[in-house]
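Lab notes, practical 5.
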Amino acid sequence: MNRQCSAAHKHLPQSGEQLEVSSESSRTGAKRPAATRSGAKRPASKRTASQRTAVKITAAKSSRSRRQSKTAVPRAVLLQRLGILTFVIAAAVALLLVPARGYMAQRHEISAHRAELTDLEQQNQELTLRRDRLDDPSEIQRIARRDYGLVLEGEESYSILPPASAGLVLPRAWPFGLVQEPLEQATLTP
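Output from the prediction step:
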């Protein structure tokens, strides 16, 4: 019985070793001890070449899965934090964009109204000066003579007409040349 136990102990892991399932032993369901974390391995003489490659493949797969699991959790957390940050930034932009747009529109309206107010104040000053001038009787008389041709009692008004025009000047091109000569003869003959 001791021999049977010692044979069974060969396949059990030593202290610090882990159990791994190789591709060859996965078909049979048997578990064999893997290398320790410190790197100690079972003697190579007891393993076949296919067993050694199966152990290497499973060790590489397990180290890859350990690396992925270590980085997968922070990557998921990072993606979650990035999503939250994106949402917060989008919410802040949405909340600030509407009031900012209203503020900019109000500033534009205020500047347009200020320009209009400046123009109206200038027109108001000009009209005030014109009203003050029209209060003067001499200004009223001047406007009446100039614009309406009015005169005081006992005065006579003479109008000087502008000189007669020099005539119609037509281009020397084809149909106008036929018309130009009879017009010149008609204006020369009084």
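Observations recorded by the TA: The first strand starts at residue 19 and ends at 20. The CA atoms of residues 44 and 52 lie 8 Å apart.
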